């Protein structure tokens, strides 16, 4: 193991160097809170965009919006940028912001425990311990690959890998390949693998709704305008933002408002697939929006190819040489690509963060499922801020907008703590419960609850603890400044501050 030196103590410790960790570092630095450390178990910034290098990987929210508001990129080559461009953008943004001196890569956080007496976080890493007043987790909502629980999967003798851990050393050219899953990653992967493989089987459990992808290269004149007339780029971003926000009523108020979207998706099937049986097999049986709406122009044509089969029978087992479906059919393959998603409703970091009384986040959430105040702070866990925490996910717009809203809230907290001599902040249980009751009440009428699908948004308690059931501007407004009156706070002298004195 190479030796990596970590400071003994910092004011703010940040886990993860994706959009969340990087954005936090840049904004803290900009506002004079430079005493921070960001660690990531990977070898560079990027998170999602460092790890998901599969062929066809690209964002599905246009890059003008899927980027930091404070770091516009005039050089996007097209409306939906491919992964290498997004990764290069994040690396460049980090370099230009001058914050990388406080990043340590190849460092895994193994545990973090709150010390109530010293009022400090003890953060254990594989390179030693660091003490911090404030702990920010930006460890990702879609970061830990989830392998399917299929009998015999370990016995497969060919090549097998998860979409987020693509093996670029393995050449799929001329091979018999299986892709398991038809989610957001799979529909980007299938058209690319179909170009190389001799034969491709796509295993579908539930057909997703797939809308056309309005992707195109930017014209030279547009790129010129982005570079020299920043207002033009801002106008693009604003237009995309409001266009996306128009989806919210269809998701959260009345699914009938999504009928035009459904028509487009049905036309996409008709346009892309000629075989009536295959059309039937890819037509979803739940309301559009219930599961994540996907976008692609080439997924259906790829499925329609002669050397590609869509398999809708459930998988019974995997043998050393192939996949056996419930009807007993054996399909031999050389390679299996597992595109079955990530741990979403049980965040891996939750097992490792211990709050007051030594309870982990996982313990706190065992009975009820994930819950936080404003998706960011958690009762029983002083000075902990979680970016992309419970009920902050989006089905329609850019997660970077949510991440920036949370960063602004954290920055406001640090500012107020500094100005008022406050050592610790922790949301009251009452504030947290009221927030979650409101979120779950709103959730009841959303298409995610009523649309007739089983999705990764829903946890084992049957609650949707991943998505935000309102507009993104409502979220931003609610997190605009840190609402100290909803928190139990202690002064640097350890004297609790009465609630009436903190607002
Ligand atoms: C293939 C794919 C495509 C996507 N496309 C879009 C899109 O188009 N639009 C959109 O809005 N969202 C998209 N998302 C969601 C995306 O995850 C978020 O937009 C965003 O990248 C999340 O950033 P993050 O920093 O919160 O997490 P991540 O980017 O996941 O970064 C988390 C980081 O934390 C590190 N980490 C985790 N645990 C530890 C630990 N214990 N110790 C040290 N480091 C740790 C990880 O190594 C990782 O680098 C996509 C996700 C995937 C997987």
Task: Describe the secondary-structure layout.
Layout: E1 9-15, H1 19-30, E2 36-40, H2 48-51, H3 83-97, E3 103-105, E4 109-115, E5 120-125, E6 128-137, E7 159-162, E8 176-180, H4 184-196, E9 199-203, E10 210-211, H5 220-228, H6 230-245, H7 248-252, H8 259-272, H9 276-282, E11 294-295, H10 299-303, E12 308-311, E13 315-318, E14 322-325, E15 330-332, E16 335-338, E17 353-354, H11 361-366, E18 384-386, H12 399-420, E19 422-427, H13 429-443, H14 447-450, H15 472-478, E20 487-491
Parallel strand pairs: 1-2, 1-6, 2-3, 4-17, 6-18, 7-16, 8-9, 8-16, 9-12, 10-11
Antiparallel strand pairs: 4-5, 5-6, 13-14, 14-15, 19-20
Helix pairs in contact: 1-12, 5-6, 12-15
Bound molecules: flavin-adenine dinucleotide.
The site of flavin-adenine dinucleotide (FAD) has 32 residues, from helix 1 and strand 2.
Provide a brief overview of the structure.
Helix content is 31%, strand content 18%. The protein is an alpha/beta fold and 503 residues long. Helix 1 (19-30) packs parallel to helix 12, helix 5 crosses helix 6 and helix 12 runs parallel beside helix 15 (472-478).
Q: Your description of this structure?
A:
The protein has about 500 residues and is an alpha/beta fold. It folds into 2 domains: about 10-145 and about 345-500, FAD/NAD(P)-binding domain (3-Layer(bba) Sandwich), CATH 3.50.50.60; about 155-210 and about 245-340, 3-Layer(bba) Sandwich (FAD/NAD(P)-binding domain), CATH 3.50.50.60. Helix content is about 30%, strand content about 20%. It has helices at about 20-30, 50, 85-95, 185-195, 220-230, 230-245, 250, 260-270, 275-280, 300-305, 360-365, 400-420, 430-445, 445-450, 470-480; strands at about 10-15, 35-40, 105, 110-115, 120-125, 130-135, 160, 175-180, 200-205, 210, 295, 310, 315-320, 320-325, 330, 335-340, 355, 385, 420-425, 485-490. Strands 1, 2, 3, 4, 5, 6, 17 and 18 form an 8-stranded mixed β-sheet that branches. The model has no long low-confidence stretch (mean pLDDT about 95). The chain binds flavin-adenine dinucleotide. Flavin-adenine dinucleotide binds near residues 16, 18, 19, 41 and 59.
